[in-house]
Amino acid sequence: MSEIRKVRSEELKAVSGELKCGDKILLSGVVYTARDAAHKRFNALLDEGKELPIPLKDAVIYYAGPTPAPEGKPIGSCGPTTSGRMDRFAPRLLDLGLGGMIGKGERSQEVRDAVIRNGAVYLCAIGGAGALACNCIKSCEVVAFEELGCESVKKLYVEDFPLVVADDCHGGDIFSDGRAKYCRV
């Protein structure tokens, strides 16, 4: 069994060269949520030559649309969204400095190429475990596109958020590697 590594979100891109497909990490620090609607707006802002509402350099985006917070909690259920829906936007954001992405499911070859090209990382969270994931979120603040409701961009502070490296900057891909290993059995 591999060791679980603790990583700070602001250091994720700096340590991405040390991370390999299949590694388990506990992520702590600032993470931004953004799903389809927010990504479309990010793209439109960039097309217009405007700044994004979040700092992109070395940032981590979590593909999630959290539910409203129950009393006494900073956030409701916060499970990952299928990442492939953001594939048409991800290479551009990675080329502009995005350090990492969190979601679920396989990514396109264009995204995997952008991860390698930019020394970034794609991490998978456990799908279907949003109620458990919210226990790692210590604060939540809407920072952009409030009118989008659950799809607004939120700034989260996470502690020991359990994740698996799905695509590393060396070309490792947990999905294709897993299929290849299964087919050899």
TrEMBL record:
Alphabetized UniProt keyword annotations: Lyase
UniProt-recorded Gene Ontology molecular function terms: fumarate hydratase activity
Domain Fe-S hydro-lyase tartrate dehydratase beta-type catalytic per the UniProt entry, residue ranges: 10-177
Pfam families documented for this protein: Fumerase_C (PF05683)
PANTHER family recorded: L(+)-TARTRATE DEHYDRATASE SUBUNIT BETA, L(+)-TARTRATE DEHYDRATASE SUBUNIT BETA-RELATED
Family membership: Belongs to the class-I fumarase family.
InterPro entries, alphabetized: Fe-S_hydro-lyase_TtdB-typ_cat, Fe-S_hydroAse_TtdB_cat_sf
Protein source organism: Ruminococcus bicirculans
Source organism superkingdom: Bacteria
Record's keyword annotation contains Transcription regulation: no
EC assignment: 4.2.1.2
Signal peptide coordinates: none
EC category: lyase
Keyword Lyase: yes
Protein name as it appears in the record: FumA C-terminus/TtdB family hydratase beta subunit
